[in-house]
């Protein structure tokens, strides 16, 4: 899929391809560390917080709608904060394996 910006103002849509998604992730990866640092005093290791933050950053880049009226940074930050807050509230990561 090619990047395409319509010249018609009524159809002003930006179509994202994988290179745009990669660019959004690379340009905003610092957000993950900033938000994860806020939860450094939790019982969850920072590496797990950061991993979950990056998972949510990738998800937000794939789901972002540029026509929604807010920036990608705001959208991604909100989703990352929500995911990490939920993770801390649960006290464990969803992918954590419990040994009997």
Helix and strand arrangement:
Blueprint: H1 18-28, H2 30-37, H3 46-63, H4 72-90
Helix pairs in contact: 1-3, 2-3, 2-4, 3-4
Q: How would you explain this protein's 3D organization?
A:
By secondary structure, the protein is mainly α. It has a single domain (17-90), classed as Four Helix Bundle (Hemerythrin (Met), subunit A) (Up-down Bundle), CATH 1.20.120.1810. It contains 4 helices and no strands. The chain has helices at residues 18-28, 30-37, 46-63, 72-90. Helix 1 runs antiparallel to helix 3 and helix 2 packs across helix 3 (46-63). The radius of gyration is 16 Å and the shape is elongated. It starts with 17 loop residues before the first helix and ends in a 10-residue tail after the last helix.
Provide the descriptors you would attach to this structure in a database record.
elongated, about 100 residues, Four Helix Bundle (Hemerythrin (Met), subunit A), mainly alpha, disordered N terminus
């Amino acid at each position: 899929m090619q990047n395409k910006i319509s010249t018609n103002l009524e159809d002003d849509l930006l179509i994202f391809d994988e290179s745009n998604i990669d660019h959004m992730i690379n340009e905003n990866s610092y957000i993950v560390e900033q938000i994860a640092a806020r939860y450094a005093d939790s019982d969850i290791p920072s590496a797990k917080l950061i991993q979950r933050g990056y998972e949510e950053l990738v998800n937000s880049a794939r789901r972002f709608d540029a026509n929604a009226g807010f920036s990608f940074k705001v959208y991604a930050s909100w989703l990352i904060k929500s995911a990490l807050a939920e993770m801390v509230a649960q006290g464990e990561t969803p992918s954590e394996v419990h040994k009997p």
